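I am still learning, so can you show me any protein sequence you like together with the matching structure tokens, please?
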Amino acid sequence: MKMVKSLLLGSAAGLVAVAGAQAADLPVKAKPVEYVKVCSLYGAGFWYVPGTDTCLKIGSFVRVQTSWNNTTSDVPNGMGGGGNNAVAGRETRTDTANFGFRVRSGVSVDLRTQTEYGTLRSYMDIGAQWSTDIGTADNNASVADTLWVDRGFIQFAGFTAGRIRSYFDINSFAPYAYSNNRTSGDTGALGIYGLAYTAQLGNGITASISFEDNGQASGGRGHFTLNMAMGELGLGSTAFDNKGQQAPDVVGALRIDQAWGYAQISAALHDASGGYYGGANSTLNGHPADKWGGAVSAGFTLNDILGFKGDQFGVQACYSVGAAGYCTRATGAWQRYSTGNNAGFGWVSDGVYDNNIPNVGAGQTNVELTTVWGINGFVQHLWSPKWRTSVYGGYIEVDYNSTATAIINSHLPGAAGTVVCGVPVGGAVIGPTIAAGGGGNACSPDFSWWQVGSRTQWNPHPDLDIGVDVLWTHLNTAYKGPATLAANGARPGGPYAIDDQDVLSVMFRIQRNFLP
């Protein structure tokens, strides 16, 4: 009996020991899961990144659009787009597509953290697009697939650095129009490189100074100086001879933001220096003195106008000398043919210079700065929370002074020693290939244009836009009157009437937005 009792007690002790060992091997109890928390500091859509004090918002959009008489860059055919856009302006069966198609999608990432110096913010907006080729009948050419980055900046302690919207810009047409309006120099669509500081003066008033890209190929404001000895102007084409970028543009802005809306005045300095003298573009020829231009702008937007909740009204005016890109993004050549032998043209520049004016003995000239000015505006009315209509438009004028006009006209087609448009010709056809010497021609490269459009949009859901935009563009042509043109693609050379031109364009768009 004692033996049985000892055996039972020993077995029990062994079981307790084994159980204790197994309990010791069990994992430590997990900590409670830290769920994502809403960040209410910066508005809707932000949440705290787990384990940090940084707030994050991710947004996106998908856009599908079809256009008529518009290029895939949303610019009316032939109206200041340059490249294939100008080719489309020839309006022939082989050059011009009636319809264009584009699908674009984008993603934005907004990160913000509170510091002892204020909010530390980084923002990025990237995307991709597919669109049919422009300037080709029936859109049968290869498609254009593009990756883009229109924003990528850091903000801290009043400083902003990266790809931004220019601090010169005031009103944007993006909330009120689908078409790419050419009566504004706004950089919002593509962005621009800048380094800026903004001072908060109180009561919604801010003052900013910014150093911004004035390059041509990088999406900057553009540098558009013409060396007429190098044949810069042609039918639907423009080339430029610029000094390389030596310094950024300097931009200043004073702004007030209130419940009623906002108002701003802006100013900018812009390098408009040319390259070298002579058609050979050689250092042996010397170069014109450096030349700086500038621009000023003023504008405002009013909210809830006439007591209608959500309605808006805005106006902006711009004046530039040697800084065309601040008043308009239509810095390519204008070219529009219509029925019969009828066509209109225009060229935008920052300035004009020449090795010499042929047969005049003027010698090497300075850069003669071009004046570009304009005004634009919009009004939007909300019929209901789901329906809205806007009307928008503007006017731009390009003026060359008398010396610049003489330089350009001295290179018009003509026999050496003859007088064309009041200026002796040196025999080199390296200006606009427009023989404008006949009676009745205006003999002036000055031109202007205006645009008027309306967009109606339906929002069956707050995140879904469905709408139609109709735009009328009118070109007041350069060199108005009878002239002889060189052959131009399928368009034969010969006598033409250089006259004002019109184009009606339409765009249909569907866009799904998420936390824009």
About this structure: Residues 2-25 form the longest helix (24 residues). Helices lie at 2-25, 84-88, 402-409.
